[in-house]
């Protein structure tokens, strides 16, 4: 690099930093616009009653319907089963979960409905590869 190219390189570096700072301000916002940091809760040695009773929804997709229903019952809830029966099969031997509400990982409350949509196992096995 020659001496005449150094000022040009420095100009490009400064311009790049200015553009980066401008984009960061647009995306994140200015520091004085930032929301105040939340006040941390005091640390406790034991979880509160509300924290101890928290149950999260398990992932039930592609599990047999009876196993999924038993898993929900073990958590103290009752699942409502609905069928998606596109092929008109009235009484398949094995149903599997194809949809669930709420989704996996959601905290469950005692009043929250749990819905499982099931399909015949052979229908679920024909799902497209990811």
Task: Please explain how this structure is put together.
This protein is an alpha+beta fold and 130 residues long. The protein has four helices and five strands. The longest helix has 24 residues, at 5-28. The protein is elongated, with a radius of gyration of 27 Å. The relative contact order is 0.14.
Quick structural overview:
With 130 residues, the chain is of the alpha+beta class. The protein has helices at 5-28, 49-52, 65-74, 121-124; strands spanning 55-56, 79-83, 95-101, 107-108, 114-120. The mean pLDDT is 73.
Spatial strand arrangement across the major sheet: 2-5-3
Instruction: Calculate the terminal CA-CA distance, rounded to whole Å.
Output: 50 Å
Please tell me what the overall shape is.
elongated
Mean pLDDT: 73
Number of helices: 4
Order of helices and strands: HHEHEEEEH
The residue fraction in helices comes out at 25-40%
> In terms of per-residue confidence, which ranges show pLDDT below 50 for 5 or more consecutive residues?
none
Notable characteristics:
three-stranded mixed beta sheet, two-stranded antiparallel sheet, alpha+beta
Which helices and strands, and how do they pair?
Layout: H1 5-28, H2 49-52, E1 55-56, H3 65-74, E2 79-83, E3 95-101, E4 107-108, E5 114-120, H4 121-124
Parallel strand pairs: 2-5
Antiparallel strand pairs: 1-4, 3-5
